[in-house]
Amino acid sequence: xxxxxxxxxxxxxxxxxMEGAVFERxxxxxxxxxxxxxxxxxxxxxxxxxxxxxxxxxxxxxxxSSGESxxxxxxxxxxxxxxxxxxxxxxxxxxxxxxDPKHDHVVFEMTGPRPARITYNDPRRFGFMDIAxxxxxxxxxxxxxxxxxxxxxxxxxxxxxxxxxxxxxxIKAALLDQGVVAGLGNIYVCEALYRAGVSPRRKAAxxxxxxxxxxxGEIIAVLREAIEAGGSSLRDFAAADGALGYFQHxxxxxxxxxxxxxxxxxxxxxxxxxxxxxxxxxxCQR
Length: 286
Ligand code: ZN
Fold this sequence. Notes:
Helicase, Ruva Protein, domain 3, 4-stranded antiparallel beta sheet, binds zinc ion, alpha+beta, N-terminal domain of MutM-like DNA repair proteins, 2 domains, 10 strands, about 20% strand
């Protein structure tokens, strides 16, 4: 499932063909993804210019000349493919993995300096698209309870400490809570906890002092490194699907059950917390 770094990589891939471009034609091939598409979906986009393409947590936000905003979430398996009409090499952004066209659900024909067809493909259909009214973005259901952007100015060691204090849940669950900090998912939470030496079972409120300072620093570092890795995949004309970032990124604990810890050489363990797998090193994480 794409997390913040993968979504940021997708944003950087889409930005050159979306920002400043106009939706010439929008084709929704089905009425719904995970949720029904908003009323008048195509009509509210067609003829509108994309003023900017932003990201909030795991969401992409295209701010439109109408004042409305198109909100896009990739869910588990959503991906965008870009085909540029006037390029000798079509599909600069083509996918490493095969994309079955029967799962092409939404197509944007963009006009502008770089005319392109952008196709949203999503086999499992956990992704969705929505449109927020002018001035309704911050208060819409997707963002009103969302915590600070981890790489933004509003997130600091102090805000993390504050958000964790009083929480009885395990730190693993607290970090997955998008109200504590936006954009983290299972993979980067496991990695950040390992790097900070914090046990995923530890009560969130007990992660304080130097421990929470260290955790804050590792959350930032692990996200920055993953975005960097995603950026290099873009330079190599690779996919906009986010999944690529997982393949070429080297994880310390995620999906390494039974393999040796790179610090202490003991085996990495897996346990289930809240229905999700947690990977950790019992001797390095306290
Ligand atoms: Zn270890």
